[in-house]
Amino acid sequence: VSxxxxxxxMWFRAxxxxxxxxLTIQAARAETERALAMALEHPDAVDALxxxxxxxxxxxxxxxxxxxxxxxxxxxxxxERAGGLWAQSKAHSERGQAHVLRGEWNEAIAAETxxxxxxxxxxxxxxxxxxxxxxxANAYLGAGDAERARDAAEQAVAISAKGGSRLIELWAQVPLxxxxxxxxxxxxxxxLDPGARAEIERALGRAETLIQELGAKSVEPFLHELRxxxxxxxxxxxxxVRELTExxxxxxxxxxxxxxxxxxxxxxxxxx
Amino acid sequence: xxxxALPGHGxxxxxxxxxxxxxxxxxxxxxxxxxxxxxxxxxxxxxxxHGFSRFVGRDRETDVLESALARVGxxxxxxxxxxxxxxxxxxxxxxxxxxxxxxxxxxxxxGHCRARAQxxxxxxxxxxxxxxxGIGERDTxxxxxxxxxxxxxxLDPSLHDELPLLFDLLGVSDPGFPAVRIDPEARQRRLFxxxxxxxxxxxxRSVALFVFEDLQWIDPGSAAFLENLVDALPGxxxxxxxxxxxxxxxxxxxxxxxxxxxxxxxxxxxRRELLRDLLGADRSLDGLAKRIxxxxxxxxxxxxxxxxxxxxxxSLVGERGAYRLARPLEEKTVPSTVQAVIAARIDRLGERxxxxxxxAAVIGREFTERELRSVAGIAEPEAHALLRALLGDELxxxxxxxxxxxxxxxxxxxxxxxxxxxxxxxxxxxxxxxxAALEELYPERLDELAxxxxxxxxxxxxxxxxxxxxxxxxxxxxxxxxxxALDQWRxxxxxxxxxxxxxEAVAIGIWSxxxxxxxxxxxxxxxxxxxxxxxxxxxxxxxxxxxxxRAMVLGMYAHTRVVAGDAAxxxxxxxxxxxxxxxxxxxxxxxxMVGTPFALFMTGHLRExxxxxxxAFALWAExxxxxxx
Lengths: 272, 629
Fold this sequence. Notes:
The structure holds 2 protein chains of 2 kinds.
Chain A: H1 5-19, H2 25-41, H3 48-62, H4 65-82, H5 85-101, H6 105-119, H7 128-142, H8 146-163, H9 166-186, H10 194-214, H11 220-234, H12 237-254, H13 257-271
Chain B: H1 2-5, E1 12-20, E2 29-37, H2 44-49, H3 59-73, E3 78-83, H4 90-103, E4 107-112, H5 123-133, H6 141-155, H7 163-169, H8 184-205, E5 208-213, H9 220-231, E6 238-244, E7 258-262, H10 268-279, H11 288-296, H12 300-312, E8 316-319, E9 322-325, H13 338-347, H14 351-363, E10 366-368, H15 369-376, H16 380-392, E11 396-400, E12 406-409, H17 412-420, H18 424-441, H19 446-459, H20 463-477, H21 482-498, H22 503-523, H23 527-544, H24 547-563, H25 571-584, H26 587-592, H27 595-602, H28 606-628
Parallel strand pairs in B: 3-6, 3-7, 4-5, 5-6
Antiparallel strand pairs in B: 1-2, 8-9, 10-12, 11-12
Helix pairs in contact in B: 10-12, 11-12, 12-13, 13-17, 14-15, 14-16, 14-17, 14-18, 15-18, 18-19, 19-20, 20-21, 20-22, 21-22, 22-23, 22-24, 23-24, 24-25, 25-27, 27-28
């Protein structure tokens, strides 16, 4: 089934334990880098792709776009050189994710679009389709196209839910909520539409349920941040501060220093 | 040997040293220094000496090829597709044009597709590469590697790291310099990229001609290579000529730089010209030419065979270009098809000659004398005598003399008819002999030849042995041609089904279907095919009672479903595969089944995924401890 099962198992274990909150970012990275070294020594060159993908995932938790892009460049190079369509689709999606982290929206849109093209070329690419759609939604949102972001996120949620890929569905819920909030934020002068609010709450509730079911403790700070954005939109400042503080605390606890620093900076004026 | 060594034959490169006095010889003799092999290593031109008829009626077509060559010389690569029915003169046109190119020192490489060889992966491609690298049939693995490395590195030293890919493709892997293991699709992409670089670099030096004949029989892997070659043509000084019988079509033929040349039957004037060349102008022939021309409907090969048939039956006497009709032709004895003419010619051979021709047809369009002797089980003197007779009858010609004597059928139709003119039982026996001969004669090329051996064994009604060799061929094909490998595995599964029940047949049946699933999901095979392969493999695995097989079959199928985005529905199947792997008591298998933790991870069963991997880490720790101790 795989050429380097130990390497695969190592980065799987590191990623899973990071999700479960059993490892800090730094510990997960160290173990994944060991897995990468092992995979790179293996004769099946493409085996290293999984470890690069795992490292990009860690960078996403941490908020480190620089490192993510570096890993993504290697992943794409490897997939183009040694992988099939399946590997290439995933690698391009990871590059898109790295661009999202860096706020490079057009590059992210291009990379995710390429990933989707590849994924849709053959039936076995369907697993990656919702993951690419979720990242595409993030990219559209960053580029200011909330409608397309929402459309992509809805597709991502529907496809992953249908296939039972709860991990991808969880990540698709986040960009689903963000554009809903984003669309409402563009009408800041008006009251928050009750229908939209219910929709946002429903998506947040589903994300919370998935976090509980999966035990994915490390995704919690992302949810707290989304709740803070919703509170900010409705003018509920105490809740905004509370949720953002909790997100910042959890990011700091898991070792996601750039994320924690970003939220600290946002919280500083609120504290004064 | 002395005769063919003389200048003008082209088999050897000779330097004229001038005239010398030789003691005991009255006149001064011209002495030549033997400098090497000549440019005419392939000896189809011998066929001219053995009766190639006059090349007529193809002026327009030749002009088209000349124009294409002129444009190619200016750096605009092109393809010309030559289409036409059997015997219409496609090969002859390409031969004449290739000869004209060789005379102008333009390098020419050829790949021929063969009837009954569509399931043999990459045959024309390998033929083309072997001729490009100057590889002989009897070269050792080391010699082949040296040939490849020498030629490639002279062209482009930066291709050094890619040499193992070419070694693998030509079946001469170097254990000390193995290729990096990459996904099969990536390997094919990379191989194509290497071949394109060679093409582009080579084309900077001079114009080149690639000839592919009989595309209607091309295998999928070679077709993919050809398409890649066509895509890489723009900007190179390379002309590709491809011939085929309609209705063959390929998507790349729609490219703007691909032209088409449809060969029409010879017109009246050309028919007359050809017949005048073949028959002469004796008054007894009045009316005969007209009858032949009408019956052959402008098909030059039919015309030639018709005349040969009349000569064989002594209806015509004299010699070429100066025949006379010895007795009137009866209408009922005039064959209506070219096939009938050839069949009658073969029937008129002596029994030994006929059997040898039929045996040769079982080997294929081309065959070496060694192969033929080994298969037919005859000694050298008898083989020489019989082959001389067949050469004299213009049924075969000497295709090459070095590094060993190789023959070919004058036309594909002769081979086809000779092949089908023998009883099934004899043909099956001969196929078995060919398989054994290939195994014995080419021990260093067995990976490359495995598909051929398998096909012969299949025709010999030995499905189990055919499946065994087919599996070897599929494993080798997977290196360079994933779709070809998938096709081979499909064939292997059918062969294993046809084999008498045995543990080996069951094992091959299971393994081939696991491979179909593995290649199938990567290459986008129909879901139905993957599911059918799974169901058949599961049934075989359960029948065998082998826990490892059962675990692998379930694990592989479940993995194909997960990557198709249907993870949750197949979780229980994954869990079952792990349970079976545990029961099998094979720790390595258990570790290798990482598809299950992956599925558990994607479906959000994070803790279960961790538990599933525990045995892998335990085994890893144990391995590390043992290594330290």
